[in-house]
Amino acid sequence: MKEPVEPPTITVPIILPLYRHTRAWMVVAGTLAIMLIASVVIAGYLWNVNGKWQAQVNQLTDTGYALGDRVAEHRNQIDQLESTNGLLADQLANAKERVLTLSNEKAQWRDDTAFAQQQVEELADHLTMAMDVATQMNRCLEGEEQLIRYIRAGELVYPAAEVAAYQVSVQELCDSALDAKQAMEEEIAG
Questions:
Q1: What pLDDT digit, counting tens, does each position of 45-101 carry?
Q2: 3-state DSSP assignment of residue 9
Q3: Cβ contacts of residue 129 below 8 Å, gap of 6+?
Q4: Are 167 and 147 in contact (CB under 8 A)?
Q5: CA 39 to chain centre
Q6: Where are the domains of the chain?
Q7: How far is Cα 154 from Cα 148, in angstroms, rounded to an integer?
Q8: CA within 13 Å, CB half, 182
Q9: Rounded to the nearest 5°, which phi and psi values hold at 31?
Q10: Helices 22-104 and 110-153, interaxial angle, to 10°?
């Protein structure tokens, strides 16, 4: 015979009325409220920090572009000066050759020889001046490239005051180089 099968049993949880757990619910609600306030404060702080970082990145990007433009401009000026140096060197070589040719000719050509010698000396002076200007422009370019490296390194490596002081000294160096370039161009034109 078959044994009788017992029906399955179901456990029903006992739910106590809410007023019996009031203190526990107050603690949970208070804890959740404190956590919500803390998360809002932290989110606000992080939002503020993010804004400051974005502003600093934008400023550094603008500074980088401005310095890049200045470097490109100075490289262009250096290329022009090197071209001028090459032209002056060629003129100097031609003038020296002419002086040697004239000095080997008849004595009546002495006036032309003196004039050519004077031109050679002028060209030599111009070439020396152009080389000095090119050297100053190269130093300006190197200073600006170093300034870019300082700015990229950030304030953790180089304090902002030192970078600003270095930027001023580089600007003075570049201004001096541009003044020398202008004086040389006026000397050559005049």
A1: 999 999 999 999 999 899 889 888 888 888 888 888 888 888 888 888 888 888 878
A2: coil
A3: 184, 187
A4: yes
A5: 38
A6: 64-189
A7: 10
A8: 6
A9: -60, -45
A10: 170
